Amino acid sequence: MTSTVHLGPGPGSFTDLSFAEIEAVARRGARVELTPAALDALGRGRATVDKLAAAPTPSYGISTGFGALATRHIDPASRAALQRSLIRSHAAGMGDLVEPEVVRALMLLRLKTLATGYTGVRPVVAETMAALLNHGVTPAVREYGSLGCSGDLAPLAHVALVLMGEGEVIGGDGKPAEAGPVLAECGIAPLVLEPKEGLALINGTDGMLGMLVLALRDFTRLLKLADLTAAMSVEAQLGTDRVFLPELQAIRPHPGQAASAANLLTLLRDSGVVASHRGPDCNRVQDAYSLRCAPQVAGAARDTLAYATLVAERELASVVDNPVVLPDEDRVESNGNFHGAPVAFVLDFLAIAAAEVGSIAERRTDRMLDVARSHGLPPFLADDPGVDSGLMIAQYTQAALVCDNKRLANPASVDSIPSSAMQEDHVSMGWSAARKLRTALDNLARILTIELVTAARALELRAPLKPACGTAAAIAVLRQRGVGGPGPDRYLSIELRAAEDAVRDGAVLAAVEEAVGALR
């Protein structure tokens, strides 16, 4: 685990922050520390803001109102009230609480941008944000409020409100608690925001980007799992592994397809089940698409993931704020870099990929349960078909999840609704795209879990034929976790949830990779 993440500008003036570091802070409570270079950059950026604040010429975000009210010049005596009012009014979220890992990710990413000095905040603002993260103080952010343009305004405003000692945090019981006493208990002094600082705290794509990075980490693991469950289904349905040979992938050179096919060959290596029908007596000509085309679909998802990774890396190398401070030129410039379109598009693209990976997995599951297509397996893998229903309704659950993901694949980023009296007349809806992607990936984990449980039972029904080493390792983990094999009907939900836990905590993939080596 990364114990401390250091934030500060590097050779290219931008903070170098990896996906692994973001996940460590968001999910495992890693500490953050501002480097001396960050504190120096913050000081230089702030000097520019102070100079412009003292000038008679209005500067947006420093001595003016915001959005459609940007034409009003604000008297110096009212500028502290301006910042306070901005945060209070923009902390307008509603709905359920956003998950702590998402809030911590968006806080870290906003802090990353602050640390470059381009936003013009004082060092104490960045230091207080770091203190919240290091003390485990998580602001209570609500589900709805961001349109993904001018940044994730409402979610970030709820964070900024806590920096001011106001608003709510997520208490130890998971419920909202008053922020002021929690800050006092941690020895964190509330901020009185100065010119430019309120806007700098809320004008970024940090929420949608944080969710994108976490989704990339999760989807990468799920695609390895998808290759595993596909291999188990191919094996259980007496399919062939020859369609995954590298020479066949080379004549259609998509890198994701090649990686997925290589995983399938690795997972099916030395399978007694596959070997049992490899000879001249086999009358099967070719397998159904859901088996034969597994690497084409999962591979396309991998290539989508690669593109989304590139976009996330570019966004991490960006300073997203408006206006942005250019300390070397002693000026502040308005810009459109807060628009979330680049991030929103790939969030939607990933939701499409997740829907398709789940859809083909459900088709493989259904084939194992249908006596007309399963090549000798009992109906629904039931012990006494008719008396027992076997895994019939597990497939219903899987189908419901697949259909939900099809709905979630409808893009949010093609929608837009004008706001701020038509000043902000086109928005990205990137926050909404991120929220639905999180749900889609949760659904995908459950879809693949059901395929895993089904294929494991089907493979055991092929005894005395022995499965491959890798697929056998997956079955062993399920049995260790209390997921039973073939037999009379029993309470199925509890077993499916136990299998899901083994998927989510990484036990299944860890056992498989220990048996066959690292998957691609």
UniProtKB/TrEMBL annotation:
Pfam families, alphabetized: Lyase_aromatic
Family matches, as InterPro entries: Aromatic_Lyase, Fumarase/histidase_N, HutH, L-Aspartase-like, Phe/His_NH3-lyase_AS
Catalysed reactions listed for this entry: L-histidine = trans-urocanate + NH4(+)
Pathway(s) per entry: Amino-acid degradation; L-histidine degradation into L-glutamate; N-formimidoyl-L-glutamate from L-histidine: step 1/3
SUPFAM superfamilies documented for this protein: L-aspartase-like
Subcellular location as annotated: Cytoplasm
One GO term of the biological process aspect: L-histidine catabolic process to glutamate and formamide
Protein name: Histidine ammonia-lyase
The organism of origin for this protein: Actinocrinis puniceicyclus
